Amino acid sequence: MDEAKKRILSGIKPSGDLTLGSYLGAIKNWVALADSCDCYYCMADMHAITVRQDPAELRRRTVSQLAQNIACGLDPKKNVVFIQSHVPAHAQLGWVLDCYTMFGELSRMTQFKDKSAKNADNINAGLFTYPSLMAADILLYQADLVPVGEDQKQHVELTRDIAHRFNTIYGEVFKMPEPWIPKVGARIMSLQDPQSKMSKSEQDTGGCICLMDSPESIMRAFKRAVTDSDTRVCYDPDGKKGISNLLNIYCAAAGITIPQAEKEFENKGYGAFKTAVGEAVVEMLRPIREEAGKLLGDKAYLAEVYRDGAMRASQTAGRTLRKVYKKVGFVER
Ligand code: AQP
User: Fold this and answer.
1) What residues have CB less than 8 Å from 48, skipping those under 6 apart?
2) Side-by-side strand order, sheet with 80-83
3) What is the Cα–Cα distance from 10 to 27, expressed in whole angstroms?
4) Is 77 a catalytic residue?
5) Virtual CA dihedral for 99, 47, 11, 108, nearest 10 degrees?
6) d(CA 54, CA 60)
7) What is the Å distance from ligand 1's center to 61 Cα?
8) Nearest residue CA, atom 35 of ligand 1?
9) Where in the chain is the domain with CATH 3.40.50.620?
10) Is pTM beyond 0.85 here?
């Protein structure tokens, strides 16, 4: 490893098929960091089971997520790409950190409150301690930066609090990580409910675009996107949430700024604008869908990638775990 390079850790849980939010908020930025940083990315299947999953679907989505990551440009030779459950150190450090995370801290997490409200019949302990497992994911790799969308910032802040608490007792064991939030695409909203985040576990609402969706279905979703009764295409995240979300998506897909997009659609009305956003997204996702489709036909290659990733991730993670076990007083085997 090049010592001068910053270390990155991030992950996505295969709780649904990857969305435009996963791409713009996370994967697109991971790809951009590959040359300048030392990167670790996981398919966070252990986090996914905090909500009930169909086992066959979870397996399918985990491998499909790997194929889509590679199709998005994430080179598994330059990056360590692995499946979280293949590296037992995540669960092992997760338990230790549970013992250094306070009940009150976990109770304040917005995601826990949201998910508990949505899964009232299954408010399990894993859903509650999700942030300490996420802290383990990050701290195992001594990450400097954690690229996340806005919604995950609170969890990275809690990771820092846990690391600080542990380091204060035992000395400098963990590197202090910083959240890295993209300037564009940090919060892509649902096309049907622009007050809520576009989420992969809510795919039957019509508000979600998946990376593997057909061009026809993408166009249909954009044409039906909720806007407002005005006709002006202008950025106003408080007053015009739907249009502002579409502008964010358009700018990310077309690689232009908000003022440039506003100028382009001056006096053009919502119909033309929605069609243009749909077309820009179709073109952005077309090569990803085609390449992922090809990769999914080569299961042996994908297995080779995740096995190699698990081996490389385990080496780094094992070093931190051994240090932690020693510090807390576990007897060496
Ligand atoms: N809509 C979004 N806009 C911007 N960034 C997003 N991310 C997710 N949705 C958006 C970012 O993608 C990364 C992976 O997220 P995750 O799968 O670990 O968790 P999540 O944020 O809970 O994702 P979902 O899609 O909302 O999953 P479900 O429906 O299962 O809860 C993170 O960096 C996240 O910020």
Assistant:
1) 13, 14, 15, 58
2) 80-83, 37-43, 6-12, 145-147, 178-180
3) 9
4) no
5) -60
6) 10
7) 15
8) 149
9) 6-181+298-328
10) yes
Distance, CA of 271 to CA of 274 (rounded, Å): 5
Catalytic residue among 197, 240, 263, 268: 197
The model's pLDDT over 165-209, given as tens digits with 9 standing for 90+, comes to 999 999 999 999 999 988 777 789 999 999 999 998 877 778 999
Lookup: tokens for 291: 């390449």
- Active site (annotated) includes residue 323: no
The token pair that represents 222 in the structure block: 């954009």
Distance separating the N- and C-terminal Cα atoms of the chain: 28
112 within 8 A of 130, measured Cβ to Cβ = yes
Cα–Cα separations (whole angstroms), residue 331 to 89, 139, 276, 327: 17, 22, 62, 10
Dihedral sign (CA 14, 46, 169, 330): negative
Active site residue 223: no
User: Could you tell me the CATH superfamily of domain 200-294?
Assistant: Tyrosyl-Transfer RNA Synthetase (1.10.240.10)
